[in-house]
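thread: overnight batch results

M.L. [08:02]
morning all. the overnight job finished for the chain we discussed friday. pasting input first so we're all looking at the same thing
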Amino acid sequence: MISQTLEGREGVNRRQFLCATAVVAAAAALDSASAAVQSDRSAIKAVVFDAFAIFDARSVFRLVEEMFPGHGSALSEQWRTRQFEYTWLRNAMREYRDFWHVTEDALNYAAKQSGVSLSPAQSRRLMEAYLELKPWPDVTPVIDTLRRRGLRLALLTNWTSAMQHACLQGAGLEAIFDFQLSTDRVKAYKPDPAAYRMGPEVFGLEKHEIAFVAFGGWDAAGAKVFGYPTYWTNRLNLPLEELGVRPDATSSGLSGLPNFIISGLTT
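M.L. [08:03]
and the structure it wrote out:
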């Protein structure tokens, strides 16, 4: 009887030991997996931004309404739509024309489509508004956080170098970005892979080491397909594009970007 009791206790102790060992092993595995996730996200060494994720273009369309009361909404919608449609059409036709001229072409078309008489002086004033854009309110604190964490930064945008320089200088951000990349370099607009490829080339990094911050849903899709960890600043609260791909994180602004880069959490 005593022998049986001892054997029973030994069995219990053995089971407890094995159970405890399994718990410790599981905890170690979880710690290892967590560390791997942190290590993978920490591998991001640079961040590239689309210019519209940094600069707020709504001032342009407010100016349109001021200049053409009652017609501003229709003109703005046509202008904004054609602006990007023309970049995609020029990609397809392999007929590159820089974004400044594409924007001007789109404005001229939009005026005709909307039945608005647009004088050369009015056209010039509206175009100049693209050189005076201000940053979104959340830009400066997020940029400061990324810089303190040692991340390198760049713009990677359809804008011309002159457009980038004017807006960055006006906002006092010209020294913040290591590179100001325009599609003029490769004569192909996003979402052509040649445009996104500028990031790895100038930084000397792999795709997965560079986070891409998009303003447009189509741009987020293009960056994700290219291979960037992608953060979509969906400031206009638009639905996800039906392109069979999702960004890694979506937010109404930039405030969640540092956490996305450091921890891999979506927002």
